[in-house]
Amino acid sequence: MLSIPFGRVRMCDGISRRNFLKVGALSFGAMNLTLADVLRAEAAAKNQDPFGRTRHKAIINIFLGGGPPHQDMWEIKTEAPKEIRGEFKPIATKVNGVQIGETFTRIASMADKFAFVRSIVGARDGHDAVQCTTGFLKASLAPLGGRPSIGSAVAKLQGSVDPSVPPFVGLAERTQHVPWSDSGQTGFLGNAFEPFKPSGPDMANMVLNATNKDHLPDRKKLLASFDDMKRTVDHAGGLRGADAATERAFDVLTSNRLVEALDISKESQKTRDRYGSGKPYQFQYDGAPTVNEHLLVARRLVEAGARVITLSYGRWDSHGQNFNLVRDHGGKLDQCLTALVEDLDVRGMLNDTTVIAWGEFGRTPMVNKEAGRDHWPQVSCAILAGGGMKMGQAIGSTDRTGGTAKDRPVAFGDIFATLYHNMGLNAETTTINDPTGRPQYLAEGKVMPELV
Question: Can you give the CATH number for the domain in which 81 is found?
Answer without folding.
Answer: 3.40.720.10
